[in-house]
Amino acid sequence: MLYYKQRAIDQIVILTGAGISAASGLATFRDTGGLWENHDPMDIATPEAFARDPDLVYRFYNERRQQLRAVQPNVAHRALARLQQTVGQGVFLVTQNVDDLHERGGSEQACHMHGELQSMLCRHCGQRQRALATFDGKTACPACGERGGLRPDVVWFGEMPHDMDRIEAHLADCDLFIAVGTSGAVYPAAGFVQLARHAGAITVEVNREASDVAGFFHHHYVGCATDQVGLLVDELLAARVG
Ligand code: APR
């Protein structure tokens, strides 16, 4: 059994955002001005942009997938993995990030509510499969052989996030909710802290600065995730009984 601030903790939900991967060198969305090839990523990550200029959108995600190959998970990813390995089923990790740094940092469970760069979806056969390093509208789907159907398996603005029922079930049952490196600017993830509080959970924010929903958190670890997440995990594991 874990204890946090003298309270028994059975179920933990952890939400991560771009801030946990920033220290690995991956740009966040709102910190850096986020302009890519003179386009705002917010204008590219949409079904309308894909319909309007598919090659621009394919290029954007191919370039982010290439960038991912050059970066490594950091100590914050590894600290969360250590918590998951030690506590087991009592930790549910949900991430807004589409990178694979949680998995490469040792997490065996990570719910990608916004999809994954390393996955691609064929609109002809519906198959989700490991993304090719680069692909576009002329690439044949490895599953069905059709061309013109492959798209990045990433949730665009206006599309439904993945696994919301499962996420909400974990939030309704959690005793501790931890948000790491997210601005609280985008729903539904920004509303998770309120669902956790409604369930009676203790809520903790780890961020370099106050997020848009900072007021809903009981405790704040202010600083870089690579410093703060390890401190929090050590605090939780030091108070473990049995
Ligand atoms: N350590 C801790 N926090 C950090 C660090 C760091 N090294 N660097 C940045 N941050 C924090 C910033 O203070 C900010 O609150 O991470 C957050 C990054 O916010 P965003 O760029 O808005 O990223 P995120 O919250 O993940 O965005 C949510 O919006 O654009 C959509 O789908 C996209 O998943 C994304 C979603």
From TrEMBL:
<dbReference type="GO" id="GO:0008270">
    <property type="term" value="F:zinc ion binding"/>
</dbReference>
<dbReference type="InterPro" id="IPR027546">
    <property type="entry name" value="Sirtuin_class_III"/>
</dbReference>
<dbReference type="InterPro" id="IPR003000">
    <property type="entry name" value="Sirtuin"/>
</dbReference>
<feature type="binding site">
    <location>
        <begin position="181"/>
        <end position="183"/>
    </location>
    <ligand>
        <name>NAD(+)</name>
    </ligand>
</feature>
<dbReference type="GO" id="GO:0005737">
    <property type="term" value="C:cytoplasm"/>
</dbReference>
<keyword id="KW-0862">Zinc</keyword>
<feature type="active site" description="Proton acceptor">
    <location>
        <position position="114"/>
    </location>
</feature>
<keyword id="KW-0479">Metal-binding</keyword>
<feature type="binding site">
    <location>
        <position position="225"/>
    </location>
    <ligand>
        <name>NAD(+)</name>
    </ligand>
</feature>
<keyword id="KW-0520">NAD</keyword>
<dbReference type="GO" id="GO:0070403">
    <property type="term" value="F:NAD+ binding"/>
</dbReference>
<dbReference type="GO" id="GO:0036055">
    <property type="term" value="F:protein-succinyllysine desuccinylase activity"/>
</dbReference>
<feature type="binding site">
    <location>
        <position position="144"/>
    </location>
    <ligand>
        <name>Zn(2+)</name>
    </ligand>
</feature>
<feature type="binding site">
    <location>
        <begin position="207"/>
        <end position="209"/>
    </location>
    <ligand>
        <name>NAD(+)</name>
    </ligand>
</feature>
<dbReference type="InterPro" id="IPR026591">
    <property type="entry name" value="Sirtuin_cat_small_dom_sf"/>
</dbReference>
<dbReference type="InterPro" id="IPR029035">
    <property type="entry name" value="DHS-like_NAD/FAD-binding_dom"/>
</dbReference>
<feature type="domain" description="Deacetylase sirtuin-type">
    <location>
        <begin position="1"/>
        <end position="239"/>
    </location>
</feature>
<dbReference type="GO" id="GO:0036054">
    <property type="term" value="F:protein-malonyllysine demalonylase activity"/>
</dbReference>
<feature type="binding site">
    <location>
        <begin position="17"/>
        <end position="36"/>
    </location>
    <ligand>
        <name>NAD(+)</name>
    </ligand>
</feature>
<comment type="function">
    <text>NAD-dependent lysine deacetylase and desuccinylase that specifically removes acetyl and succinyl groups on target proteins. Modulates the activities of several proteins which are inactive in their acylated form.</text>
</comment>
<keyword id="KW-0808">Transferase</keyword>
<feature type="binding site">
    <location>
        <position position="122"/>
    </location>
    <ligand>
        <name>Zn(2+)</name>
    </ligand>
</feature>
<dbReference type="InterPro" id="IPR026590">
    <property type="entry name" value="Ssirtuin_cat_dom"/>
</dbReference>
<feature type="binding site">
    <location>
        <position position="125"/>
    </location>
    <ligand>
        <name>Zn(2+)</name>
    </ligand>
</feature>
<feature type="binding site">
    <location>
        <position position="64"/>
    </location>
    <ligand>
        <name>substrate</name>
    </ligand>
</feature>
<dbReference type="GO" id="GO:0017136">
    <property type="term" value="F:histone deacetylase activity, NAD-dependent"/>
</dbReference>
<dbReference type="Pfam" id="PF02146">
    <property type="entry name" value="SIR2"/>
</dbReference>
<dbReference type="InterPro" id="IPR050134">
    <property type="entry name" value="NAD-dep_sirtuin_deacylases"/>
</dbReference>
<keyword id="KW-0963">Cytoplasm</keyword>
<comment type="similarity">
    <text>Belongs to the sirtuin family. Class III subfamily.</text>
</comment>
<feature type="binding site">
    <location>
        <position position="61"/>
    </location>
    <ligand>
        <name>substrate</name>
    </ligand>
</feature>
<feature type="binding site">
    <location>
        <position position="141"/>
    </location>
    <ligand>
        <name>Zn(2+)</name>
    </ligand>
</feature>
<protein>
    <recommendedName>
        <fullName>NAD-dependent protein deacylase</fullName>
        <ecNumber>2.3.1.286</ecNumber>
    </recommendedName>
</protein>
<feature type="binding site">
    <location>
        <begin position="96"/>
        <end position="99"/>
    </location>
    <ligand>
        <name>NAD(+)</name>
    </ligand>
</feature>
